[in-house]
Amino acid sequence: MTISIRYLRLYLHVPSGDRRPIGYLSQFGDILRVSFDESYIEDASRPTLSLMFRGATEADTKAILRSTRDVRLVRSDGHWPSWFANLLPEGHNRERLARERGCEVDDDFELLAAAGRDLAGAVEVEPVPVADKIPESVLAWHAAMGIDVTHPEVVASPVEDAASLAGVVTKFSAIKDGRRYIVKRHGRPGAYILKLPSSRHPDLVDNELTGYRLAGSLGLDCAEAARIPLSEAELPEQVEFPHVLAVKRFDRGPDGRRVHMEELAQAMGYTPREKYGRGLATDLPTMLRLLDRLSARPANDVREVVRRLVAFVLMGNADAHLKNWALVYPTGDAPVLSPLYDPVCVTAWFDELAPHEYALNRKVDRALSELDWPDLRALLDTAGVPRSSRLVQIAKDTVKQAKATWPTVLRDAPDNLRTSIETRLAGGVALAR
Predict the structure, then answer these.
(1) Cα of 37 vs its chain's centroid, Å
(2) From CA 18, how far away is CA 28, in angstroms rounded?
(3) Structure pTM?
(4) What percent of the chain has pLDDT over 90?
(5) Which of 31, 79, 170, 251 is deepest in the core (most CB within 10 A)?
(6) What is the number of alpha carbons within 13 Å of residue 62 lying toward its C-beta?
(7) Mean per-residue pLDDT for 343-364?
């Protein structure tokens, strides 16, 4: 059988600022595959792309990176393997990117190619010139499957100023020039995310900004966020709201350098549809074990996760799924927990919507609201992290701190958010009783 192929070069920017080629992404029919360069596979000091591709030993890691059938590297349903699928946007952002590219909304290959210059973390992809010889690392797999690849198809260059940003809220990648935030970046990777309200949730900016302020008042490590007037944002779309939320990207350095990151959904092998995981009883211990075993600052990150969990329970953030937790690789190898982001009080909208809306978030909130101190201790013991009793005390101290500091922060909050959180602080959730 003879078939043409489309493929992209895969790069990973490293802390030195260099852009290192590490592999190829190819498509033939409905089969999408990742092929790593032999130089990357053989490099024992290779920069980490993901914990998903790291084995218990160096030999195990090489086996994963060389695999021809591992689902982490190949799928035959027209979609990228889970790690790369999580690089793609969702909802309206995905639809907008498809329009910019002129492709179908479910064309994973074209969507990634379109946004290849501004992806999360330090990853970048771009088309390979058709005149180039198809690399052996790509051909070898096809030969093993009995596929005769005779020629590559032309792949269009990335769409200028296109970006892939996770989440369903309308958002844009921007740079800052003086006081103005500019989406038309002329190919430069964005350093800020501009998040827009919607007709459904016109108070979204104030809601999320309050979440940042509440978390910040507890001393949690937060991404930098600010509410800016629409006049300071040069957007490509007409917007009817007066303010936009500008969030500084922690995967970009002060000089525009890319800092690698991955969402917990990526590190744990979940597809975008599985971002809510398998439930708190499974996902929290897994997250804690991962950080305790692999983080460059395990004690700090484990403690931070516990304190964030308490804050999310108290503020009604029932949307803290595994795409809203992330790891950062400042040195290129060992991960650390990323700053907190997307702290939205979803419960503020529950009474405004029909009971069937936000059904999954309501289910998550019921579990979080019923979480008590023995439950938390049991989760910590399941994770096997050191000094679980001390962590429970830290969590209790976080509740006391929230009760002392949050009323002041809530004075300027939207009414629905303030009412929801005050009810929770007064005993509406088990951890506050």
Answers:
(1) 25
(2) 30
(3) 0.94
(4) 82
(5) 251
(6) 10
(7) 93
